[in-house]
Each structure stands twice: as structure tokens, then as C-alpha cells.
Amino acid sequence: MSAEISATVDPGEVGLDPRQLARVDAHFARYVDSGKLPGWHLVITRGGQVAHSSVYGLRDVESKAPVTPDTLWRIYSMTKPITSVAAMMLWEEGAFELTDEISRWLPEFANPRVYDKGSTLKPYTVPATEPIRVWHLLTHTSGLTYGFMQTSVVDALYRAAGYDLLPPPGVDLAEACQAWANLPLLFQPGTRWGYSVATDVLGRLIEVVSGQRLDRFIAERVLEPLGMTDTRWWVSGDDVDRLAALYIPGPTGGLTRYDLLGDEALREPTLLAGGAGLVSTAADYHRFTQMLLREGAYDPPTIGADAPAGGHRLLGSRTVRYMTRNHLPGGQDLQDLSTGGFAETNFEGVGFGLGFAVLRDPVPSKTVGSPGLYFWGGVASTTFWVDPAEELTVLFFTQLMPSSTYPIRPQLRQLIYPALIG
């Protein structure tokens, strides 16, 4: 399959104003021209048809290599929805229930303790009043955290154990889960929301339940059926030239190349991070979002492939609908339950489902969108959303860390929704 993606329909035929779409491109072109972004790729579909696919700028500023439709991007936390879909495929097979304690498969989590008070040198913990359950991992309500948060004693303990933006050298996923299980939880499971390594632990759960390594399971059960032939855990050979360079804001403006982290994508990882491990293209991730928009159904990559009864599916339609509802306790939003710190979303009016943030109400955040829209992003400023009410999907790829540097995501919504005319 081609790694490239291009428009397949005139925007006006699917109710999109081409003049407003041109404004979207012009707006983000200014980001590149002013030195804020290296380059980007934007894809907009409606009704399952690609109405807009545009690229601008450079995938490598130093070599002047342009962004092309087949550019490879580190998607970081946009790996999480893929891992969540993989887990729910096992759930559909009856491999576990969402309310099951994860210690049934990961015994290291049998007796979690929760941080109560004290310092990193002398933390005081109490027993967890509720075990960590599968749904806690899918919703980030487990009490786990990330070492790079810089907001609590618990994330400082993660860093002291060697878990920051990168894990300690040579540690695999099973060993990382052992380490995280020995650290205190940030809060009692099921009571708060905290962005965390929960999806990495979910990936380990997939390994134990399925008997396969996470990369093999995801490849066989998700990527290959969808024809996501360019999505992988690292880049090698001739494809290295297609990989966009990673950048951070420069100390006096402009961009600074961040090869210290970016070059991790050129090596086979020891730790298969289900929460942040994949590299992909716009064409590949488009196929994933179209499967979601079609509530689990997909077109096989092989032309003429026989369709089973009910068509080709990764998940049942009711499963996708269930995953993309707000599962936070009491129907609350992230503003009510978040522990603060970094996340790939704003908190106001946003709930969380099984692997996705879910827009409950666009008014509190003053960002347009349909209730029921679901989405996520990656730390290098990539993002996607699926709006079932408008049959709309949007993908944006670039490589600037952190994603909180510029308001790219709200501006995308601000500029794209006015293009809807039908």
C-alpha cells in the first residue's frame, strides 16, 4: 500500500468550505515561516472521504528535507488509543472483565500502597482501599503517574527510580511494571484522574493475557488488518530518511534539534511502551481513525478480500460507542478529577473514556466541537480527533516538544469547524 494520502473528493461535495480550509493552511504556514514549527501534515475527512491533505515546511530543518505525504512521525501518546483498541479486542473475546483486578495477571500489583504525606526521602503511604482494575488503566484513574510530571512527591520517586522521559537502559516492560508496582500510587484507584504509565501497564496485561509480545500482538491484530504498513516501533534502513527530526523551542527563539530523544526512534526498544512507542504516517493513522469513525469496521488492505459475515471488523460497533463515552466516576470531567500536571488535553468540559478523551461540553473550554467528539495527542504536538456527529476526522502531525508549547489543538478546532457548511 502507498504510504501517501491525498484528497479523494472536492471539499464542497462533503460540506466543507475550501476557502476556510485555505485559512487553516495559511495559519499554520505562519507557524513554520516564523520559526515556531519545522513543518506539518494536516488531513481532514468527512463522511469517510479525504477532503483535504496538505503539507508544509521541513521534516528536517538542517538538511532542508521537505515534509512529504509519506513522512514518518513519532506519535508518542497517540499510541495509547491503538493499545486501548488492542486491549478491548481481548475484552470482546472474554479474556477479562473491565472490573477485574489486574493482579490476576500482574501479581506485583496485588498490594498497592498510596502516598499520603512526607518527602521523597521519607514518604508515608497507606494501603489502597480499592485494587487497580482494568478500567482504571484504560481511564488513567489507577493512581499511577509519569516521572516527568514534576508536580508531586510520587513522580519524583519515579524519577529517582530512573523513570523520566525515558526508562532506565536495558529495562523491559515486565521489569518496568515490577518497578512501578513497588512505588506508591498518587491517589486511591478510581477516585481521581492522573496522566500516567497506565497504558504501558495495559500493554503488559495484553502480553500476559495473549501470550504474545505487545509489538507482535498489535501488529497481527491491529496494524496488519488495517493495512498500517508504515506503523512500527522503530525506523531502520532506507526509511530513516523519511523520519522527521524532533525539535524543542530554542533558548532565544526558533527551534533546537532534540536528537537525544529523537534518535530513540532509530533503535529497537527494550521496553515496548504501549503508551508512547509507535512511529506512523498520516496515511496509516488515517486508516485507524476511519475504523473508529465506522465504529470498528474497516476495508481490508487486500483488494477483493472476502468479507466475513458482518464485514471486516476490529471491534463491535457497541464496543466503540462504549469506549468513547465518559467513564469518569460520577460522570464528572477532568477539571473536577485531575491531579494537575501535564496532559494531552485541556480539562474543562472534557471527560475520559476507555483510551480517549471525550468532549462533554465545548462551552467551558471555549473551544468549538460536538459533544461526543473524542481525541488524543502526542507530546511532539501531533493530534487527532473523531467527531461522529459531523462524520469528521482530523489529523495533524509535526515534531515539536512539548505539545503545550503553542495552542495548536484549540486553534485547529477554531479554524476547521467554521469550514463545515453542510
Describe the structure concisely for a colleague:
With 422 residues, the protein is an alpha+beta fold. The chain has helices at residues 18-33, 79-92, 134-139, 153-160, 173-181, 198-210, 214-226, 259-262, 282-293, 317-323, 334-337, 408-416; strands spanning 39-46, 49-60, 65-66, 73-74, 113-118, 123-127, 247-249, 255-257, 279-280, 350-352, 357-359, 374-377, 383-387, 392-397.
Describe this structure as you would to a colleague:
With 422 residues, the chain is α+β, with helices and mostly antiparallel strands. It folds into two domains: 11-76 and 214-419, DD-peptidase/beta-lactamase superfamily (Beta-lactamase); 83-210, DD-peptidase/beta-lactamase superfamily (Beta-lactamase, 3-Layer(aba) Sandwich), CATH 3.40.710. Helices cover 27% and strands 15% of the residues. It is built from twelve helices and 14 strands. It has helices spanning 18-33, 79-92, 134-139, 153-160, 173-181, 198-210, 214-226, 259-262, 282-293, 317-323, 334-337, 408-416; strands at 39-46, 49-60, 65-66, 73-74, 113-118, 123-127, 247-249, 255-257, 279-280, 350-352, 357-359, 374-377, 383-387, 392-397. Strands 3-2-1-14-13-12-11-10 form an eight-stranded antiparallel beta sheet. A two-stranded antiparallel ribbon has the order 4-9. A two-stranded antiparallel sheet has the order 5-6. A hairpin with a 4-residue loop joins β2 and β3 (65-66). α2 (79-92) runs parallel beside α6 and α2 (79-92) crosses α7. It is globular. The two termini are 32 Å apart. 48% of the residues are buried.
